[in-house]
Amino acid sequence: MRYVSTRGQAPVLDFDQVLLAGLARDGGLYVPESWPQFSAADIRSLRGLSYADFAAKVMEPFVAGCLTPDEIKALCRDAYAGFTHPAVAPLKQVESNLWVMELFHGPTLAFKDYALQLVGRLFDHVLTKHGKSVTIVGATSGDTGSAAIESCRDRKAVKIVILHPKGRVSEVQRRQMTTVLSSNVRNLAVDGTFDDCQDIVKALFNDHQFRDSHNLSAVNSINWARIMAQIAYYFWAAVALGAPDRPVAFAVPTGNFGNVFAGYAAMRMGLPVARLIVGSNRNDILTRFFETGSMTAQGVVPTLSPSMDIQVSSNFERLLFEFLGRDGVATADLLAQFGKTGAMTIPPATWTAITALFQGYRFDDAATQGLMKALHSQSGEILDPHSAIGYGAALAAKIPADIPIVALATAHPAKFPDAINAATGIHPALPPHLADLFDRPERMDAIAANPSHIKEYVTNFTKGQAG
Ligand SMILES: *Cc1c(COP(=O)(O)O)cnc(C)c1O
Fold it and tell me: Would you say the CB of residue 110 lies under 6 angstroms from ligand 1?
């Protein structure tokens, strides 16, 4: 499989190059040159497989030419072996036509583990094959950092440095990062905001000489391999509920649009997806887009669902590219307009086509609390604030009763104990593998929000000296 950029000006790459490249050189995002097709018989043949073997089958065509079917299967088996639920991604029925898919049984309790546990192994596999190594640098406001660290810890070909805003991530989130004492992992507590952290990471990547001499790499949500790994659980849920013989709708709490784009990709591959329902918090750029056809950036407001507190959904570019007939120039033009003015209006026919498949709903914190409370008193089910927004979007969409809806639960309740407690009066416990999280020793280095200090730190670390 070969990959093309959404802006049409970057070289066409193989899977292993796309994995390591992250962003394309023309500023675009990589997508497969064509969507692999799964016939009804292909989809039926997935029934009865374990999650790992199922996921490997779905991903096989995307890695073809770089990994053999046996290699991707072995990597999947290893990646999902550490998940704590035997089904890996279990479905729980909460209404007659509504299921919650629990995507929080990985090591760091957020759905990001489902992609990153595999991506860390893919990095190691591909780098070792080519005799190379990289240093991954990233910024986090919470979930991504711990999932990335957990996926890269103790891997020989990878070092990882994660920046978080000092004192501005929750204690559970910080400890999930800083209690990983592996020698290839460093945590930087930056004296600044999340935006400062992200600007510093961008500055490091934009210094091409620094980037090349230190083999910098990224595992943020624009990395194609993360989308690819997420496609698997859309197939998994749909097959469990009757695909290919029955269409299924999905409701997805959305920030960067990576997760829900994987649902779109599954549809393009032949999965009967009736509808994709996008849930947002008060940072509702997507809801407003679905309502009006205009994408307009506004300031970010903090909410109970911090992993969705974003101003711009970077993976939306992939959807735009598809709905503009894969016209890289038109995609680049719209994004240039957006970059310059903070707003873009897409052609009416394109908007009509998008909204035939996608719907968006927003929930403020009070509504989110209300959803958590109502579901709990109705069924005993506890959802974290992100997942509650997905559940709320599923209810709001009013899908015909004969179409099953799957609401994606993206974080374990114990990651957000205060919000759960306020809504339901329950204090959710951490699962056994994290029960002693608050007793584990932490390691992190405090550092000023200054790119040159951080470059020096990264240089010392990659040279093998203590950071
Ligand atoms: C990252 C995250 C999201 C948003 O996912 P996107 O792929 O960025 O849309 C939603 N919920 C949780 C818990 C997350 O960690």
Answer: yes
